[in-house]
Design brief:
This protein has 219 residues and is mainly β. It has one helix at residues 161-164; strands at 3-7, 11-13, 19-21, 24-31, 39-44, 50-54, 62-65, 67-75, 81-89, 94-101, 107-114, 123-132, 141-146, 151-157, 172-175, 178-183, 186-192, 198-207, 210-217. It contains one helix and 19 strands. A five-stranded antiparallel sheet has the order 1-6-5-8-9, with no helix packed on it. Strands 7-4-10-11 form a four-stranded mixed sheet, with no helix packed on it. The protein is globular, with a radius of gyration of 18 Å.
Length: 219
Amino acid sequence: MLVAMLFPSCTKTVDSNVVTVYDKCYLKVFDFTNTATTYSTILISPDKKSYVFTPGFDTLYNEIPSGISIAKVEAFGTGYLYSPTSVNLTTGNYFTSFIYNQSNNIPGIGFIADDLTVPPPNYAKLRVLYFLSPGATNYPTNVGVANATDTLMTYNRTDVDFVRIAPLTSFSNIKSSIYSVFANNSIIGVISLTGGRIYTLVINKTANTIFAYNLYINK
């Protein structure tokens, strides 16, 4: 469940007579660090207000001011701030933010745009993201889904692919069906994709030969 603290609002008062109204965009946040520490996403938005999101499973899109924001990762309990970055969250669009493990053991934060247009009849949209848990070696990994007739695979993924190679974060149309989830040519689970829905499949390397997965619905 998402805990979001928005303070105080999506407008700011310039003086007693003028109020600036900001355009909106929509943000979904996740924490894929898989550590004992709970992290939050902090955004300093164009309205100069701080927006704090503590991610949970299947979080909702939150309406926030659009434009160039400064994003940081905050460690719950210590208040330490990590990985400040600038991001342009454009008006009217949907975005997903990830907190993830970097190879230097400092949590990183990344943003990707979400294409929520409805897929063709009898198709779903799916993207496959890959993350690394602490202690797992960051070797390139093949991940994806397949059944008897359809395959969606991505090759040589690493824990920072969604930052380095933007096309690998795109949604692909795939026939609605039941699929096996693969990591390095081994089946790690089974998922069912419903026509008309949009999904993100997250595969996490929890140890050098052990993988876990979660399927999230974007729309």
